[in-house]
Amino acid sequence: MTEKITFAAGCFWTIQYIFEKEDGVLFTQSGYTGGYTFCPTYQEVCTSKTGHVEAVQITYDNKKISFDSLLTLFFKIHNPTSFLKQGDDIGPQYRSVIFYHTKAQKEKSIQKIKELEKEKKYKIVTDIVKAPIFYPAEEYQQHYLIKNNLLPIRIKHSETEWKKLLTSEEFFVLRKKGTETPHTGIYTSFFEKGVYRCKACGEKLFLSSAKIKCACGWPSFDTAIKDSTFIKKDFSFFMIRDEVLCNRCLSHLGHRFFSINSKTKQRYCINSIALDFEPNIASF
Question: Is there a contact between 8 and 45 (Cβ–Cβ < 8 Å)?
Answer without folding.
Answer: no
